[in-house]
Design brief:
Blueprint: H1 2-26, H2 32-83, E1 88-97, E2 107-118, E3 124-127, E4 133-141, E5 144-151, E6 156-158, E7 170-171, E8 174-177, E9 182-192, E10 195-204, E11 210-213, E12 219-222, E13 230-239
Antiparallel strand pairs: 1-2, 2-9, 3-8, 4-5, 4-10, 6-7, 10-13, 11-12
Length: 246
Amino acid sequence: MSSLILLFVIVVAAVGLAFVTVRAYKNTHVDSNRALELSTTVQNIILACSLFATGFWVIYTYDVLEQREKAEVELKEIKRKIKDVESSNISISTEVVDYNVENDKDQTGLIINVNIVNKGNTKNVYDLLPTPLKVYKVYAQGDEMGYEKLLTPTLYHHLGSVYDPNSESIPLESLDSLTYSSKTLSYFVTVDKKGLYYIVFSAKDPKTIESIEESDGTTSTICPDKQVCDWFVSKFVFIGEKNGKD
């Protein structure tokens, strides 16, 4: 707006200058050569002001169009982000079951259910290979903690027979969680009958991962724009004398 006002002032000043010059010419008696010089001067002034105003208008118009295009691009990006909102509610529930192999009285079974609810307005993808679930048997003292044993169960969509050497278990490579859908991933491990376990589910979303080539020729993956690429949830479970669903 201020630029348009400046342009208007310049045009008005040019017209006013021309008007004053003409009035001065009419109120004085000058010869024809002097009149020609005054006329030429006025024309040059008006022409210079016109060229300046035209150039100023071109620059102003270009700047406005450039800002408009930039605003349109930013608006499209904002609309895309609003449209493609990824949101999930992930929780872990467990159940201890009376299961042991070869009557091992020190072992029991642990069912781990990972419940996934898609609350966004776009499909979420969970990479399940390598396995996103880790079960740590915890050793802790004070605020220091580590693990004594690590279990990495795999989610299968087909189990092979233990009695058929040609039968194979086929793991599930990825999971598509559709909009407003709810799914449960169920895992099973055998654990000690007494101990503290730390369960972690951390699955990558392939859509948000970019591959980059390093200087040594190797390829690594990064999260673009410092995004968090992992869907993450964790839980502590104590296995003791009183066990059941949790």
